Every structure is written in C-alpha cells, then in structure tokens.
Amino acid sequence: MADINQKENIPNKYNFTKDQEYMSKIMLNYFRYKLQDWKNSILHNENEIKKDFDSLTEKEPDYIDEGVNQELRMTGFSLYYRDVNLLKEIDDALGRIENGTYGYCEETGEPIGVDRLEAWPISRFTIEVQEELEKRK
C-alpha cells in the first residue's frame, strides 16, 4: 500500500464521471488523501491553539485584560473540542475506507454521492437520510 501522506497523482478535486466505478481504488485513494490532509491540518491548528492557550494561563493584574483572556480561553476550548470531534469523525471515515463501507449510507446502504463527499468527506448518510435524522432531532 502506498504512503497515504504522499500526494502522487491525486487531483485537488475528484472529477467523477458516470462510466467510472463508484468507490474505485482511485476514488478511495483520493478521499483517503483528502481526509488525511484535513486531519493533518487540524492537528497543526490544534498545536497552534495550544500554544495560544498556554500564553493565556497567567492571571492579568488588570480585570479588563483578564476578562479578555478568559474569553479567549473559552474560545480556545471550544475550538479544541470541535477539533477533537472532527478528528474522531475523520478517523472513523478512514476506517470506513479500510473496511470497504466508505461512500455508502450507514442507514440505507445506498451511495452517498461524490459531490456530497467532496463537500463533507466525513458524511455517513445520504442527504435524504441526513435531512430525516435532523428533522427527528
């Protein structure tokens, strides 16, 4: 298996045509790379957030400055937890690539569609099923 961190012959956008097999090896490699690249980007941003957060740990003598720092810490926590959840979703999607279920709706087994996966590569459901799930909530 090729190194998934290496971008060899991987286009910036996948141009799926009707005569290509859905979730072919090339398509799976494209989405594997896309997910891994997204994951690497989040991990890099997470390190930057941690550095920023570490710089805000000292108590400020001025109550206005301390209030600003507290707000920045809360924003940092929020971004960190969002990233943690995204990393889990990305790892789950990479696992679906490995087990052969990526690109297919977990509810119906139908193809999710390349356009939807291009827009949100961690999609687990077709748009119709996703809309139904959101209505139920």
Strand content: under 5%
CATH homologous superfamily caption of the largest domain: DksA, coiled-coil domain
- Supply the number of helical segments: 4
Question: What are the segments in which pLDDT stays under 50 over at least 5 consecutive residues?
Answer: 1-6
- The CATH architecture classification of the largest domain is Up-down Bundle
**Backbone CA Rg:** 19 Å
Number of domains: 2
Succession of helices and strands: HHHH
Measured between the Cα atoms of the first and last residue, the distance is: 41 Å
Helical content (DSSP H or I, runs of 4+): 55-70%
Based on secondary structure, the structural category is: mainly alpha
CATH hierarchy class name of the largest domain: Mainly Alpha
Instruction: Indicate the overall shape.
Output: elongated
CATH topology of the largest domain: Four Helix Bundle (Hemerythrin (Met), subunit A)
Query: Main β-sheet: number of strands, strand sense, barrel status?
Result: none
Count of β-strands: 0
What is the average per-residue confidence, as pLDDT, rounded to a whole number?
82
Explain what this protein looks like in three dimensions:
Helices cover 61% and strands 0% of the residues. The longest helix has 37 residues, at 63-99. The termini are far apart. The chain has 137 residues and is mainly α. The protein has two domains: 23-102, DksA, coiled-coil domain (Four Helix Bundle (Hemerythrin (Met), subunit A), Up-down Bundle), CATH 1.20.120; 103-137, no CATH class. Helix 1 (25-54) packs antiparallel against helix 2. Residues 1-6 have low confidence and may be disordered.
